[in-house]
Specification:
Elements (H helix, E strand, L loop, with lengths): L7 E6 L2 H12 L7 E5 L6 H12 L13 E5 L5 E6 L6 H5 L3 H7 E6 L12 E8 L5 E8 L1 H15 L3
Parallel strand pairs: 2-5, 2-6, 4-5
Antiparallel strand pairs: 1-7, 3-4, 6-7
Helix pairs in contact: 1-2
């Protein structure tokens, strides 16, 4: 049993719609420089969650998994950018370095699927979200905040889900 503290949140989503809504709540708080890492097997709900993130953030573009093109870029009416990186097909850390995560973070927020494949390239401060397929409709979501900014984001998610805890 995980010991949950102010840097962690565990949640069980009961449907794709609920997973998307949680993403929307978090997406509404994103700003340039934020980095979200989504870890989970195929079918764990990463793309569904990202659809909610982008919608809550205010994306003008529809969300699809960038598995074959590596990075999708979504726009907001104010010109802000949200980057969606899928590291699944990256062959090596040098290949990942060519993507220039720092430049993306200067321009917008960044969502990374399969972040464990970017060994050593992810900033120390980030929000790490583990998604696990429990059954057809159910997903377990574990949020791990690393850094003050991500504690704030996590507090926002916690409050939107459970009220003033």
């Amino acid at each position: 049993m995980a010991i949950l503290d102010e840097h962690m949140l565990e949640f069980f989503s009961r449907s794709p719609e609920q997973t998307r809504r949680i993403g929307m709540r978090l997406g509404g708080a994103l700003r340039a420089g934020d980095i979200l890492c989504l870890q989970g097997d195929l079918g764990a709900g990463k793309t569904t969650f990202t659809q909610g993130l982008a919608q809550g953030w205010g994306s003008l573009d529809s969300v699809s998994s960038p598995t074959f093109i590596l990075v999708n870029q979504y726009r907001r009416a104010d010109g802000s950018l949200l980057f969606h990186l899928d590291a699944y097909r990256l062959e090596s850390v040098p290949e990942a370095e060519e993507l220039d995560l720092d430049a993306m973070l200067e321009e917008g927020a960044l969502i990374i699927e399969w972040p464990e494949r970017l060994d050593g390239l992810i900033p120390n401060e980030h929000l790490w979200i583990e998604l696990e397929h429990i059954s057809d409709e159910h997903r377990q979501m574990k949020f791990h905040a690393r850094g003050e900014r991500y504690d704030e984001l996590l507090d926002g998610v916690r409050q939107s889900l459970f009220g003033g805890q």
